[in-house]
């Protein structure tokens, strides 16, 4: 099959590798500094060029082109795409719409209110803030910067003012407590296949300290304290009723609370950095899996540690020279580029993903952290968390 992957992050690098493993002809663009056996795509989002390539399937990685209707445009040209239309992608691109969808179908999720003005936001905060605080979310896509977990009414009001000024409409949510997990469903119009649970580590520093980021590392599998089968069936029935059962990935952000699993959010794509561990440890062919083939039993543990620019998440300048990448560890590129001499440079906040798939978390940790110590940005160590997978080591 001739397959196209669109996007330029670690997720798309993982997608391209997984498809190549299945023996397919893979084109990838815009890409980044990674090298591999795919064909690079110049001018990747040019629809005429994509059409001329006559691919069997185009897999769209990131959220922005999905929300902007890229799949609609591809379908209008008779091209087969993996990803939702803009209308279906509203599950991710509008938090307010997605919370209303959950409410319409009785899917478990925190109590919420929608606010278009500061006055409405303050009233909602007053009603929903308790001793655990309250969550203030921008309605639209905000690249991970649109959610504030506020400890009290005063800081929630401040966050609401800032987010309203920047993004407009808000969702105010009661704060729930529990362990988070990322649940990715490979959706098809007639069914779905759930991948094993993964866990992202969103804070910049060890012990979940520091600011929120796009994700500093992931692990899979993680155990669920609940049987998720019924939730999956209810969710798919709800999607079907509203014709949201598209051909693509649905990322369900879950929180395991004392009241059972609660849905925090939907993303209409593969997670990043969840894809890096899920696709690297997937036991069968990714293309067949997304077309509905049941995957065999998953084995072992997979861990991803992100190496970030020292200025991340505030800045990714200046570009830094990347050196010391050792042999024998899987390195997925995110914010990297190569110069004309082939030298690798940082070109973003999250730069590299080091991934290890091993029998247990201890072995995966040893492998990844030995490699992380050897890689330098301008001769200095990169920033990375040293505790990815620590709480799971010894448990599986
Ligand atoms: N890891 C969270 C996301 O992909 O949005």
Write a structural description.
There is one protein chain. This protein has a five-stranded parallel sheet with strand order 3-2-1-4-5, with helices on both faces. A five-stranded antiparallel sheet has the order 12-15-18-23-20, sandwiched between helices. The chain has a four-stranded antiparallel sheet with strand order 6-9-7-8, with helices on both faces. It has four domains: 82 residues, Rossmann fold, CATH 3.40.50; 64 residues, ATP-grasp fold, A domain (Dna Ligase, domain 1, 2-Layer Sandwich), CATH 3.30.1490.20; 112 residues, ATP-grasp fold, B domain (D-amino Acid Aminotransferase, Chain A, domain 1, 2-Layer Sandwich), CATH 3.30.470; 92 residues, Glycinamide Ribonucleotide Synthetase, Chain A, domain 4, CATH 3.90.600. The protein is globular. It is of the alpha+beta class. 28% of the residues lie in helices and 29% in strands. α1 packs parallel to α10 and α7 packs antiparallel against α8.
Average pLDDT rating: 96
Q: What is the CATH class designation of the largest domain?
A: Alpha Beta
Spans of at least 5 consecutive residues whose pLDDT stays below 50 are none
C-alpha termini separation: 37 Å
Could you say what the CATH topology of the largest domain is called? D-amino Acid Aminotransferase, Chain A, domain 1
Query: From the structure provided, what is the oligomeric state, counting identical versus distinct chains?
Result: single chain
**Total DSSP E strands:** 25
Q: Pairing-aware structural class of the strands and helices?
A: alpha+beta
Roughly what fraction of the amino acids lie in strands?
Answer: 25-35%
CATH superfamily of the largest domain: ATP-grasp fold, B domain
User: Compute the gyration radius: what is it?
Assistant: 21 Å
Number of helices: 12
The small-molecule ligands in this entry are: glycine
Tally of discrete structural domains: 4
Q: What does the overall shape look like?
A: globular
Strand order of the largest sheet: 3-2-1-4-5
Reported for the largest beta sheet, the result is:
5 strands, parallel
**What is the CATH architecture annotation of the largest domain?**
2-Layer Sandwich
Helical fraction equals 25-40%
């Amino acid at each position: 099959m001739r397959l196209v992957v669109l996007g330029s992050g670690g997720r798309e690098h993982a997608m391209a590798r997984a498809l190549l493993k299945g023996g397919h002809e893979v084109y990838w663009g815009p890409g980044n500094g990674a090298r591999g056996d795919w064909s690079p795509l110049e001018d990747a989002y040019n629809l005429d060029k994509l059409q001329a390539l006559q691919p069997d399937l185009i897999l769209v990685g990131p959220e922005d082109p999905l929300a902007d209707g890229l799949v609609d445009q591809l379908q209008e040209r008779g091209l087969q795409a993996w990803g939702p239309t803009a209308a279906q992608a509203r599950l991710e691109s509008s938090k307010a719409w997605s919370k209303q969808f959950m409410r319409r179908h009785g899917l478990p999720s925190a109590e919420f209110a929608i606010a278009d003005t500061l006055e409405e936001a303050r009233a909602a905060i007053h009603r929903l803030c308790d001793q655990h605080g309250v969550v203030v979310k921008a309605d639209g896509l905000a690249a991970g910067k649109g959610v504030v977990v506020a400890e009290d009414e005063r800081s929630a009001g401040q966050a609401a003012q800032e987010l309203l000024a920047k993004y407009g409409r808000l969702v105010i949510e009661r704060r729930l407590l529990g362990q988070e997990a990322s649940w990715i469903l490979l959706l098809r119009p007639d069914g779905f296949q759930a991948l094993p649970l993964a866990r992202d580590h969103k804070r910049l520093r060890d012990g979940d300290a520091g600011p929120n980021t796009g994700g500093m590392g992931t692990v899979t599998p993680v155990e669920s304290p609940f049987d998720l089968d019924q939730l999956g069936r209810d969710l798919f029935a709800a999607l079907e009723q509203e014709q949201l059962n598209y051909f693509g990935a649905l990322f369900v952000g879950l929180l395991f609370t004392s009241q059972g699993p609660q849905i925090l959010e939907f993303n209409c794509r593969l997670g990043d950095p969840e894809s890096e561990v899920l696709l690297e440890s997937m036991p069968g062919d990714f293309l067949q899996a997304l077309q509905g083939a049941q995957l065999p039993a998953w084995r072992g543990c997979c861990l991803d540690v992100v190496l970030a620019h020292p200025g991340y998440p505030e800045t990714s300048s200046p570009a830094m020279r990347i050196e010391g990448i050792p042999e024998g560890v899987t390195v997925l590129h995110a914010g990297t580029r190569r110069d004309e001499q082939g030298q690798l440079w940082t070109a973003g906040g999250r730069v590299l993903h080091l991934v290890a798939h091993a029998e247990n978390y201890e072995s995966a940790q040893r492998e990844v952290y030995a490699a992380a110590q050897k890689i330098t940005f301008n001769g200095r160590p990169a920033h990375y968390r040293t505790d990815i997978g620590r709480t799971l080591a010894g448990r599986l």
